[in-house]
Amino acid sequence: MKLCLCADHGGFELKEEIKKYLTEKSIDFEDYGTYTPDSIDYPVVAEKAAAHITNGECDLGIFCCGTGIGISMAANKVKGIRAACCSDYFSAKFTRLHNDANVLCLGGRVVGVGLALELVDVFINTEFEGGRHQRRVDLITAIENK
Ligand code: RB5
Fold this sequence. Notes:
Blueprint: E1 2-7, H1 12-24, E2 28-31, H2 42-54, E3 60-65, H3 69-75, E4 83-85, H4 89-97, E5 103-107, H5 113-124, H6 132-144
Parallel strand pairs: 1-2, 1-3, 3-5, 4-5
Helix pairs in contact: 1-5, 2-3, 4-5
The chain binds D-ribose (RB5).
D-ribose binds at residues 8, 10, 42, 65-67, 69-70.
């Protein structure tokens, strides 16, 4: 399991906390920026990082911005990305179980570090259920391919 991390300035501090957590847990990750708290456009960061998931280098992504929303909107424009902006445990779990989400988006100005780490934990440790949910994910992909 290798994770792909990225953030804009609004999510930079949260990304740094997530990196500390993953390092403590010996979970493999790559940080695709931003590397300073300076202002940066989240669509640029999201597109660059997402490519490392769609090319198979990374399994799942954790993308952070101020709300988690902008970076999720941008990530979802990349073919093959299913990004979910979550701020509660149930959603972070079920977006893996039912949607096979491959990117968790978090708002650095929305969730505290403690909750964010719980969300990361459940997201990366929950497997897609498949079955009837596979058909629905395939229907999402079909929209993408139109
Ligand atoms: C940046 O100020 C902020 O707009 C961005 O981090 C994010 O919240 C957008 O959705």
